Amino acid sequence: MKKDCFYKLDLVRKKPLQKILLQYERTAFVDFAPHYNYYQKMVQLYYHDNNDTEDNFTDDHNSGVPVSFEEIEELGVIYKHVTSQEELDALAKEREYKNRDKIHLNLETFKNDVDAYNAKMKQFYTEHYHEDEEIRYIVDGEGFFDVRNKGDKWIRAKLSKNDLLILPEGIYHRFTLTNSREVTAIRLFKDEPKWEAINRVH
């Protein structure tokens, strides 16, 4: 599969409409081979509209301005689409990550207490950084990762099943659920992770 070749598909006729770089909906790339029925949703990357509050943090807040993979790579942020346990294990070995844990968050996690759930989402609103890499792999559900670019603007990544994001140490970010209110994720880390969140002081 050639990563520099992107196609938007006509799902009725199963023919390529035009060869374009998809930056808004982030549709997966398709090779020249005649497998035009392959169509896969990937991570959505866009600039945050900066109209959020602690109370509406979990809304999409899509400014309508897309962000390319190249832009996040310049920040040291790496995106991967991982579809199997074998791929995940290979990545962990490659980056020398020996430990991992799995988290599952939804309303039931808070015993269906909406106030308790919303209180936790408000805690997620605070931006911070870590002194170690952070790797988050979405097993199921959805979540948002916001990262600051070099101009101090928020870039929002809407992650769903099989999306994996690697954040470098020292980058300001925050994570929250979407309004679907459910996510299962795996965190990968080394022997002695430095998971202490260092909050930003404004």
Automatic annotation (TrEMBL):
It comes from the Eukaryota. Gene3D superfamilies: Jelly Rolls. One of its GO terms (molecular function) is iron ion binding. GO terms for cellular component: cytoplasm; nucleus. Keywords: Amino-acid biosynthesis, Cytoplasm, Dioxygenase, Iron, Metal-binding, Methionine biosynthesis, Nickel, Nucleus, Oxidoreductase. Belongs to the acireductone dioxygenase (ARD) family. This is Acireductone dioxygenase. It comes from Candida parapsilosis. The lineage of its organism: Eukaryota, Fungi, Dikarya, Ascomycota, Saccharomycotina.
